[in-house]
């Protein structure tokens, strides 16, 4: 169920092709596109080809993939069109018995009509039916609740897969194993040893013509309320009873329930301005994007501090930072540990940190103190380093979407967002979002390609993060 929009051609079709190419989907799977536009399978193929990464030896396999693709054009609110879609699915080989998976890569405005029509006209009577819903899941608690109520009036929770592609990333999934598969981390993963937790998402580019969409949502809805909060819940949750989907998601909900709504005094908002010395896009500020409304106060950068009020984390700040047009591309989780009590080295020791880098260059490394080689007894900072590129040579990490779509086929919901989890996430951010929408505070300007507003670093320091800045992780180019 795939209109060939940006997401479809860059992510969904390539993912389905890779899964099909590698024999991970049943050979007799059929792919049916449905949208308003007058498209052909050839047009879809041409639009997607640059993203499919096809090698010369795979031409035949690619033809087999596209021979299983069909396309139906129809309106989203028109019942007759969906009846036509259903007739088409039934006419495919094995169509009467087949399982059906609907992928809704759609603007939220048409969700109600489309889901209602799928339920009334396109459900399989013999196989399973599953629906993948793409974010944004609403704009605030109320709109999200309305969407959830609408979906749950049509489908069971087992049939709904709310996709947050961050949950498909290798290192995000690794958080579970690091925490619950290692004795050395278990006992120190709490308020006694952790000074603060920093969750970061940085992009080195601006809105690039997507300003219209972005301006409507802003950085908090776009990244913080979903991706960063998902990572926070995996870092902070208690050990689940098992690795089954609901046991894991139960613990994530419990930890979110312990977070009080974010207050404006714990937030710094920024908006990028052009760098006069920059090149190309770097010269342009957010307000120079022609798709952005004049004088917009929408934030392109945010730092927020959250607190988890439970026995394990009481008093530990969780610092969420995200932004566009920054100095690097990076997503990571950083635990900074407290100072060593009873310091005998005269303030020469830095704090230990455990860093899980989600992208780029997946890695887990621990910053620790070691004696500097030589005759003096001086500690220096070094790292224990697991960089995936050097440890796992030639291992291809699957794309997040590959993993997640395969999970849907297998019926595993562990890496998908449950409705009560979504409700708690919106509860935490809605008061802040409403206050920003109402008061329209002016964001602090920061230069394209910088680290963001200095005020954000001041906020992190104020709540207890110590940035020593003496040490840089070096990507090991080992032979």
From TrEMBL:
UniProt superkingdom: Eukaryota
InterPro entries attached to this UniProt entry: G6P_DH, G6P_DH_AS, G6P_DH_C, G6P_DH_NAD-bd, NAD(P)-bd_dom_sf
GO process terms (BP): glucose metabolic process; pentose-phosphate shunt, oxidative branch
Subcellular location: Cytoplasm, Cytosol
Pathway info: Carbohydrate degradation; pentose phosphate pathway; D-ribulose 5-phosphate from D-glucose 6-phosphate (oxidative stage): step 1/3
Swiss-Prot/TrEMBL keywords: Carbohydrate metabolism, Cytoplasm, Glucose metabolism, NADP, Oxidoreductase
Domain Glucose-6-phosphate dehydrogenase NAD-binding: 5-174
One Gene Ontology molecular-function label: NADP binding
Catalytic function, reaction form: D-glucose 6-phosphate + NADP(+) = 6-phospho-D-glucono-1,5-lactone + NADPH + H(+)
Cell wall biogenesis/degradation as UniProt keyword: no
SUPFAM superfamilies: Glyceraldehyde-3-phosphate dehydrogenase-like, C-terminal domain (SSF55347), NAD(P)-binding Rossmann-fold domains (SSF51735)
EC number, as in UniProt: 1.1.1.49
Domain annotation Glucose-6-phosphate dehydrogenase C-terminal: ranges: 176-467
Pfam annotation, one family: G6PD_C
GO CC list: cytosol
Job description of the protein: Catalyzes the rate-limiting step of the oxidative pentose-phosphate pathway, which represents a route for the dissimilation of carbohydrates besides glycolysis.
Family statement: Belongs to the glucose-6-phosphate dehydrogenase family.
Descriptive protein name: Glucose-6-phosphate 1-dehydrogenase
């Amino acid at each position: 169920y795939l209109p060939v929009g940006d997401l479809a051609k860059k992510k969904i079709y390539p993912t389905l092709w890779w899964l099909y190419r590698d024999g991970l989907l049943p050979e007799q799977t059929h792919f049916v596109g449905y949208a308003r536009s007058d498209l052909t399978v050839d047009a879809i193929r041409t639009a997607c080809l640059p993203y499919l990464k096809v090698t010369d030896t795979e031409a035949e396999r690619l033809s087999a993939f596209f021979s299983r693709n069909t396309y139906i054009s129809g309106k989203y609110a028109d019942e007759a069109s969906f009846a036509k879609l259903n007739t088409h699915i039934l006419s495919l080989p094995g169509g009467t018995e087949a399982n059906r998976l609907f992928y809704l890569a759609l603007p939220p405005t048409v969700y109600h009509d489309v889901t209602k029509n799928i339920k009334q006209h396109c459900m399989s009577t013999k196989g399973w039916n599953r629906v993948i819903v793409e974010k944004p899941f609403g704009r605030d608690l109320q709109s999200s609740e309305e969407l959830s109520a609408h979906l749950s009036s049509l489908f069971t929770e087992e049939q709904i897969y709310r996709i947050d592609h961050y949950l498909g990333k290798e290192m995000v999934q690794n958080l579970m194993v690091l925490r619950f598969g290692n004795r050395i981390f278990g006992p120190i993963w709490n308020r006694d040893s952790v000074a603060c937790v920093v969750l970061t998402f940085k992009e080195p580019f601006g809105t690039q013509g997507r300003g219209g969409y972005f301006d409507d949502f802003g950085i908090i809805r776009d990244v913080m309320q979903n991706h960063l909060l998902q990572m926070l819940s995996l870092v902070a949750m208690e050990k689940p009873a098992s690795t089954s989907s609901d046991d894991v998601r139960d613990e994530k909900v419990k930890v979110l329930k312990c977070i009080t709504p974010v207050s404006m005094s714990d937030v710094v908002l920024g908006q990028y301005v052009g760098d006069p010395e920059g090149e190309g896009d770097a010269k342009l500020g957010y307000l120079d994007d022609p798709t952005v409304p004049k004088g917009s106060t929408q934030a392109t950068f945010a730092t927020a501090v959250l607190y988890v009020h439970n026995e394990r984390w009481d008093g530990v700040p969780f610092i969420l930072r995200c932004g566009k047009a920054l100095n690097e591309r990076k997503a990571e989780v950083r635990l900074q540990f407290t100072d060593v009590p009873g310091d005998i080295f005269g303030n020469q020791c830095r704090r230990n940190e455990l860093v899980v880098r989600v992208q780029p260059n997946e890695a887990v490394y621990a910053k620790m103190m070691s004696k500097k080689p030589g005759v003096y007894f001086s500690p220096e900072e070094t790292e224990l380093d697991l960089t995936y590129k050097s440890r796992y040579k030639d291992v291809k990490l699957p794309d997040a979407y590959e993993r997640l779509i395969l999970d849907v086929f297998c019926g595993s919901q562990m890496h998908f967002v449950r409705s009560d989890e979504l409700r708690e996430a919106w509860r935490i951010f809605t008061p802040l979002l409403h206050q920003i929408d109402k008061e329209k505070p002016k964001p602090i300007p920061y230069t394209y390609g910088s680290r963001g507003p200095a005020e954000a670093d001041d906020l992190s320091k104020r709540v207890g993060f110590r940035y020593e800045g003496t040490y840089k992780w070096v990507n090991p180019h080992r032979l």
